[in-house]
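Retry 2 of 3 after timeout on previous attempt. Resubmitting structure tokens to design endpoint.
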């Protein structure tokens, strides 16, 4: 597959990876902050996490050799069992549990979004996001980005020149990582909170230095 086709075939996230919860724009590990205490209602605490992790693997093992069953259904039924047991052990009210499950689902949705994005994004685009983050609260001019990041990437990977600069930037914009701005007649870009969170999420990736530009 040509390098430019990687993003041409995935110009924006599939619907299944988009949710209103993504607007939180924070990595899972630091989802609760003092600035957003409301998140406390949705995030599992350490005790709840330990109980769920302790039950889930064992309940799943019971059906691992049932080849006539759909793995997704097994997973769902196992998770149902986990929630029922956790509710009893933790003496949780239904409304409390519902919020926790919404938060849990949103966290998984966010992680899938970041993982899919990471498989598609170019190394030079990640470098650009780091530069935009360092420039907060200011934006960065479009032509500067073209010369420093896109043109340099094309020099390294000549095939990339058929993937136009506009497409290179539109990919980042359609995945909610940046927004286009116009200041004093100059067009530029700013990183979004989702873009910042994506950088935090990928900071532990060991292969990040070897990603294609």
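Retry 2 succeeded. Sequence:
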């Amino acid at each position: 597959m040509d390098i430019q086709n990687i993003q041409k075939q995935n110009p924006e996230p599939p619907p299944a990876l988009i949710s209103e919860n993504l607007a939180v724009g924070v990595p899972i590990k630091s989802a609760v902050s003092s600035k957003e205490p409301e998140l406390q209602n949705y995030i599992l605490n350490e005790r709840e996490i330990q109980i769920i992790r302790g039950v889930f693997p064992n309940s799943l093992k019971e059906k691992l050799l049932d080849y006539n069953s759909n793995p997704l259904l097994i997973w769902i039924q196992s998770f149902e069992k986990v929630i029922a047991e956790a509710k009893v052990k933790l003496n949780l009210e239904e409304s409390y549990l519902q919020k926790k499950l919404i938060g849990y689902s949103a966290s998984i949705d966010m992680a899938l979004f970041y993982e899919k994005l990471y498989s598609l994004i170019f190394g030079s685009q990640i470098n650009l996001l780091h530069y935009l983050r360092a420039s907060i609260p200011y934006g960065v001019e479009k032509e500067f980005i073209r010369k420093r990041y896109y043109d340099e990437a094309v020099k390294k990977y000549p095939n990339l020149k058929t993937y136009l600069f506009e497409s290179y930037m539109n990919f980042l914009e359609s995945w909610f990582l940046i927004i286009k701005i116009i200041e004093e007649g100059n067009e530029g870009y700013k990183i979004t909170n989702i873009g910042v969170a994506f950088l935090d999420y990928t900071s532990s990736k060991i292969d990040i230095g070897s990603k294609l530009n």
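Attempt log closed. The beta strands are 140-141, 178-183, 186-191.
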